[in-house]
Amino acid sequence: MEQLKSVLILGGSGQAGADTATLLRRWYPGLPLTIAGRDLARARRVADELDAADAVTIDLRRGDLGLPGGRSHSAVVAALRDSRLSGLRYAQDHGLPYLSISSGLIELAPEVIAGAQRATAAPILLASHCLAGLIVLAALDAAREFDRVETVRMAAVLDEQDAGGPAAIEDMERLMAISTAGLIRRDGVFTWVSGAAAEVEVACADGVVLPGQRVAIPDVPSVALATGALNVHFDLAAGETASRRRGEPASIEFRIDIEGTGASGTPLSTSRHLVHPGGQRPLTALGIVLGVERLLGLRGEPAAPGIHTPEALIDPTLATKRMAEIGTIPINT
């Protein structure tokens, strides 16, 4: 492999970061990795399981991240909440691609502004979508058969025992505290819904219905603007998934329903209902790795400087193929 510099994974000892490192190692055995965390012993345990990987401590209060001098990297992946944007600033200062996954829709504004102010510094991939953009990519893959997309309905069921670890729980609590309103696109207008209007029911694979909420998530504008659909929403429910009711481990389910017209102008609709028995961790890691591939040019040309979203860089058909390869299963409903 020509690329010899290490990918710096902030939060690399957490669940999302560790799974990302493992998948990167599987696909790119020669790509050096740096597992960065606040607990050096924990980071070393992750690094020791990977070839060509080292471990460092980080301090997100510092502009240099508290990293030892003389180090160089090929990209920065923030697999944690970078509330000070220290990782982003470090990437920009060193001209490195940057990927983040933990900002809420409102919280994306500082990242967008930071990227716009230094648009030529480095490529920035904002992947704070559900599963780091995989549901968006699955929706766009399903939309390929449409001549015109009118409505896209997305929903996910997250098992309450598959919260993704302490960092993910903290992220969810923070995002719910910021706003209980959901963002939807209705008749072409992006609008906020709250209270009873944001309360929904989400059906699991076995037909059991869970209480959920229409949420404010980047998936909504990403899908709406990429497809031109005038009506888009994303519903999220947390509870016991169908797999756990069968006595199996916690899984994650998501469903995409699309309505519009086909090439002949006749009405067309399609539904995709998918489940991963390993829960959200392997899919989130896949979404990150697909982004790293494109940022670094490991697949195709390296991404140009500027702000990107997953659907702007990653081929939807490739994403759905990879999802199946790592164990995502279609459900017939």
TrEMBL record:
Superkingdom in the source lineage: Bacteria
Name of the protein this chain belongs to: Saccharopine dehydrogenase
Organism: Spongiactinospora gelatinilytica
